[in-house]
Design brief:
With 108 residues, this protein is an alpha+beta fold. It has helices spanning 2-13, 23-29, 32-39, 77-88; strands at residues 45-49, 102-106. Strands 1-2 form a two-stranded parallel ribbon.
Length: 108
């Protein structure tokens, strides 16, 4: 289940030129298994993180990328991955979207 969820989140978040040969390693280095376990059965998720600027890579937010590669879930770094893993639970016929409770504080 963990590998499947990480694959789905990676496919959603890692776009275009960011999908280099080592992108799966970069996702794994973002403490992704821990993030999955933290949000898999949570009733609500509270995230403190930073917003991803359009046209910046989703791993560090420092490198320029095509603006079309900015993920819809525009929270950067490992917290962005945790958000994606959480909202994926409610997509495509998953859990009831009305039950999705994701709260974000931008600490930038």
């Amino acid at each position: 289940a963990v590998s499947e969820a990480l694959g789905k989140a990676g496919e959603t978040r890692v776009l275009g030129s960011q999908r280099t040969g080592d992108w799966r390693t970069k996702v794994a280095e973002m403490a992704s298994r821990r993030s999955y376990l933290q949000v898999r059965y949570a009733d609500a998720v509270y995230i403190v993180g930073w917003r991803l600027e359009r046209g910046r890579d989703q791993f560090t937010g420092r490198n320029e990328v095509d603006p079309r590669e900015t993920p819809v879930m525009d929270v950067g770094g490992s917290m962005g991955l945790a958000c994606q893993l959480y909202v994926d639970r409610f997509a495509d016929g998953g859990e009831d979207p009305a039950q999705c409770q994701l709260f974000f504080f931008d600490d930038a």
